[in-house]
Amino acid sequence: MDNVHKGILKKFEYLKGQLIIGKKEIKGENSTDRLPPDSFVPEKHILHDLIRGFYKPAGKPYLLSYQATESENNYGKQIIWKNENNAEFIRIEMAPPNSPKDNRKKSDIDAARYNLINKIPIGILRKVKKGHNIILGLGRITSEREDGIFIIEPFSYNELKKENLKRFEEILEELDEVEAINTSVLREVFQRQGQQQFKRTLLERSNKCALCEIEEPFLIASHIKPWNKCTDEERLNSNNGLLLCPNHDILFDRGYITFNEHGLIKISPKMPEIIKHQMGLKESATISINLKMNEYMKWHRLYQFKK
Ligand SMILES: [Zn+2]
């Protein structure tokens, strides 16, 4: 597999559970459009062509993604659920086109067999109704039944990813003797308490991480003065917010970086060199900041920043 297609698979995994309305975020606005490069995929790309269930990129021997339609009169029920609400399936019974006139039937079946033999994962969408797709993450074709149905079982690169994240969190945790904030619990609370409204306001200003090129849908609306120290008004005040990618959010949230009144970055002396390097942090990095934001940043510099 090339890097573009590997990236697309990772993106499928990242987007698991998301409802995507319209085709714009799957294949671009119109037929000549494609999705722009992003933090997963280095080139213009599409997740699926939305023309038929099987998507085999031109010139490649494998299937890249599959759209399960579950229409009663076409393929029937294909998905055996573990938990439908969490987009978790036990098995998908993927039927190749069955019309004798379909001239791509043979190449579809050959491609599915290629995935099976070479253990290549595929991205899965579920069409819930016209123009509405839910991403089911990744699956792997594990067998071909005698009736020609391919069996897909769930697959995840996550184990590897979890390990990396855990290692990264451990390094920070070791250095982090004072606070033990459970960010994931806090984030859940955020979402309940108007976090989405807060993020929408921030997105009106910019749709990029304040420190790098990462864009929506991968941004976090980070509070400058931490949410649990804020009044309700401060929690929703957009001057108390920064849009950051997940990596830069962790560093800011934990006080490994802050910004001066001109928006110039200050990197904590406690920041491990290796992480500074991995996160691509430059001493000259600057964000745009106004007077009101600086009031909150003052708090961050005083109480949150690790001096
Ligand atoms: Zn970033």
Overall average pLDDT: 85
Give the helix tally.
9
Q: What's the gyration radius in Å?
A: 23 Å
Order of helices and strands: HEHEEEEHEEEHHEHEHEEHH
- Largest sheet data: 8 strands, mixed
Distance between the termini: 46 Å
Show unreliable segments: 177-181
Q: Total number of β-strand segments?
A: 12
Gross morphology is: elongated
Which band does the percent of strand residues land in? 15-25%
Helix content: 25-40%
- Bound small molecules, which ones? zinc ion
Question: Structural class, please?
Answer: alpha+beta
What does this structure look like?
This protein is 34% helix and 20% strand. The chain is of the alpha+beta class. The strands form three sheets. Strands 1, 2, 3, 4, 5, 6, 7 and 8 form an eight-stranded mixed β-sheet that branches. A hairpin with a 5-residue loop joins strand 7 and strand 8. The chain is elongated and about 70 Å long. The relative contact order is 0.09.
